[in-house]
Amino acid sequence: DVKVTQSSRYLVKRTGEKVFLECVQDMDHENMFWYRQDPGLGLRLIYFSYDVKMKEKGDIPEGYSVSREKKERFSLILESASTNQTSMYLCASTKLGSVLAGYNEQFFGPGTRLTVL
Amino acid sequence: GENVEQHPSTLSVQEGDSAVIKCTYSDSASNYFPWYKQELGKGPQLIIDIRSNVGEKKDQRIAVTLNKTAKHFSLHITETQPEDSAVYFCAASTGTNAGKSTFGDGTTLTVKP
Question: A interface toward B at CB cutoff 8 Å?
Answer without folding.
Answer: 4, 30-31, 33, 35, 40-43, 45, 48-50, 56, 58-59, 90, 92, 94, 96, 98-100, 102-106, 108-111
